[in-house]
Amino acid sequence: MNCPLCKQPGKPFYADEFLMCNNCSAIYKNKKNYLSTDAEINRYKQHNNDINDIRYQKFVSPITDYVLNNFTPDQSGLDFGSGTAPVISKILQDNGYNVHQFDPFFSNKTELLKGTYNYIVSCEVIEHFHNPDVEFKLLHKMLKSDGALICMTHLYNKNIDFKNWYYKNDPTHVFIYCQETIEYISDYYGFINFTIDNRLIVLKKGKY
Fold it and tell me: Which InterPro entries match (predicted)?
């Protein structure tokens, strides 16, 4: 099975469940271990997220703080993969920001994917991408000039004991990123630069 991001060959990484790409260093799940669509949706419904939960609001604060500090309420945003409890949207909207929600399962407003946005936020979403090549092409296309894609995910590095790593145990986590993977995404899809701060990843699009 080739890497679903860069299409290059991978090598066995963890049993027969995960492979690692020889090119972009992504770790990706063998497709035979993917959940069915119904099972995946049921898994997401089990998440007990509450948009009014202060702990949940604090968890997403790297994203909301970035938006509040770098964009203005009159600029447009998209919460991509907003899920069952769009807490980022709530926080930003409470601050007067114009942000829309898209989720393929819970807010499937496909017309929003034809728009363009100053910023796109995606919290704990990109590790669920079955087709990351398609998704990152779309995300880059939807960003306006000088826009930013602002994501949160847990990157893997070789100091992590993958066998005992909690992040791989979620059956919906099918694509795991390393710093080298983010570097590949930035270069290949045409972002001008990126920053990584713990779980926060910001990919910036240049001027046309």
Answer: SAM-dependent_MTases_sf
Helix (H), strand (E), coil (C) string for 135-201: HHHHHHHHEEEEEEEEEECCCCCCCCCHHHCHHHHCCCCCEECCHHHHHHHHHHHCCCEEEEECCEE
Nearby residues of 61 by Cβ (< 8 Å), 6 or more positions away: none
DSSP state of 44: H
pLDDT (tens digit per residue) in 56-94: 999 999 999 999 999 999 999 999 999 998 999 999 999
Tokens linked to 84: 């069952």
Tell me if the pTM is above 0.90.
Answer: yes
**Inter-residue contact 116 to 75 (CB < 8 Å):** no
Q: Which is nearest to 202 in space by CA: 75, 77, 81, 66? A: 66
Give pLDDT tens digits for 32-60. Answer: 999 999 999 999 988 767 888 899 999 99
CB atoms closer than 10 angstroms to residue 8? 13
| Cβ 203 vs Cβ 192: under 8 Å | no
Q: At 108, which amino acid appears? A: N
